[in-house]
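Good morning,

Attaching, inline, the backbone tokens for the sequence recovery test we're adding to the shared suite. The designed sequence is right after.
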């Protein structure tokens, strides 16, 4: 998000919200950056045969969870290689959790949409599972 959502010189805010219930811990991530570049994501997902032309914006947003899909303009050490959110999703699923993306408002650039990530982890796995995954 720092590499995609903000450009050098931008000032921005990243918000992490934790919600606890008896059964799970939910992490909600959002920022005030540029948001997802919907047209670029759609084009790249269509090139890989993941989406049809009539895909909804929500379906386009979910394409970021597929390997090889990135909206980065250039490849850097940390982005643009199409490895990222698919790895995050795999990690969350290994912990028996779920991750979802929810589009929110228009971004400051035409075609961009801001979003939130919602990550839910079963309470019993939140700390123990994360420690085991990190140590492995």
């Amino acid at each position: 998000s720092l590499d995609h959502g903000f450009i050098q010189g931008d000032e921005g805010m990243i918000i992490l919200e934790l919600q606890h219930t008896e059964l799970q811990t939910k992490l909600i991530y959002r920022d005030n950056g540029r948001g997802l570049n919907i047209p670029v994501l759609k084009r790249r997902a269509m090139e890989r045969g993941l989406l049809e032309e009539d895909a909804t914006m929500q379906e386009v947003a979910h394409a970021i969870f597929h390997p090889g899909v990135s909206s980065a303009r250039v490849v850097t050490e940390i982005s643009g290689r199409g490895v990222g959110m698919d790895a995050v999703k795999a990690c969350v699923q290994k912990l028996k959790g779920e991750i979802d993306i929810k589009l929110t408002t228009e971004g400051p650039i035409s075609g961009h949409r801001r979003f939130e990530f919602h990550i839910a982890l079963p309470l019993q796995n939140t700390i123990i599972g994360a420690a085991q995954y990190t140590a492995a």
